[in-house]
Amino acid sequence: MGVIATAGAHDMTQGIRMTQQMIGFVGFGEAAQCFAAHLAAKGGPAPLVFCDGKTNRPPYSEGFRGMASACGVELVDSLSALMARADIVFSAVVVATAVPVGEAIASLVRPGMLVVDLNASTPRAKRLVGDAVAANGGAFVDANLMGAVSIYGAAVPLYCSGDGAARFAELFAPLGFTVELAGPEAGTAAAVKMLRSVVTKGMEALIVEALTAASLAGVRSEALRGICEPMDATRYSKFVDMCVRTDVLHAERRAVEMDGVAEGLREIGLQPIMTEATAARLRTSAKLGLRDDFAKRQAYSADDVLDAYVARMADLPQA
């Protein structure tokens, strides 16, 4: 990962200047509310907020106006009104509208403006918005939440790339934001966030499936102990390394085992969605046909396995 921005004496001066800049939020979900309230408490102009979603849009409801007031922000009735006044703009909308909203923001960017895209978009989507912002002289930040706002608050780690990322870190680290830099290319940080989500969201789904099944079978506490104790005993990095190194040898056998597990889950009344997906993923590894090669090796690393997987996938005909 990149360098984490921390506040020093120079940074504190930057932070003081920062509070005098006008900040706008397009979209006002959990993260935007948290960040806006945090910034409002630092003094300076009240952050601007514009929403045009299914739930909140002009004319805003009294309930939404009350919530906005509690966060210390000023509601505006159009994107153009927000862009005319803001120096820094956060885009925090639903993923489905992230690109069109980002492009609408970009069309109104003034030279030197900083656009911070907080949306959980794909790397390509981030690059599209970043290019549109750059075309009008703005600077773009591909910012990604790497934790839960409900846990970390405004200090939630933000993994950032783009031509405006270093400037964003310089301005916002002194204000209590945790910014880690991934480089100057938009999409770099989003790629890491996306792939991290494959694991974290996948683990969530696997855990829920396993513990729901354990509850149906009446062995919830026993299953929880059996799942957690081995994980608690090792570093996660070692576990990941073990998974990759053994996958190349045992994927086919494990896929057959998961077929049996899937049948067992059906017997207790649970659809084995993640279990069947696990078996399919294991069979995909096995079909690469690398087991015999690696079984002959005296030693190899997880990187060796992954490099071999990528090379073999490149040789296979595309569907």
How many strands, which pairing sense, and closed or not: the largest β-sheet? Answer: 8 strands, mixed
Overall pLDDT score = 93
Beta-strand content estimate = 5-15%
Number of helices: 14
Q: End-to-end span in angstroms?
A: 34 Å
Secondary structure tally: strands = 8
SSE run: HEHEHEHEHEHEHEHEHHHHHH
Kindly name the structural category.
Answer: alpha/beta
User: Reading side by side through the largest sheet, how are the strands ordered?
Assistant: 3-2-1-4-5-6-7-8
User: What is the general shape?
Assistant: globular
Based on CA atoms alone, the radius of gyration comes out at 24 Å
Low-confidence stretches: none
**Helical percent range?**
55-70%
Q: What does this protein structure show overall?
A:
The protein is an alpha/beta fold and 319 residues long. Helix content is 57%, strand content 10%. The protein is built from 14 helices and eight strands. α6 (123-135) links the parallel β5 (114-117) and β6 (139-145). The mean pLDDT is 93.
Please sum up the structure shown.
By secondary structure, the protein is an alpha/beta fold. 57% of the residues lie in helices and 10% in strands. The protein has helices at 9-18, 30-40, 62-71, 79-85, 98-107, 123-135, 149-152, 165-172, 188-217, 220-232, 236-267, 273-286, 291-295, 302-315; strands at 23-26, 48-50, 74-75, 88-91, 114-117, 139-145, 157-161, 178-181.
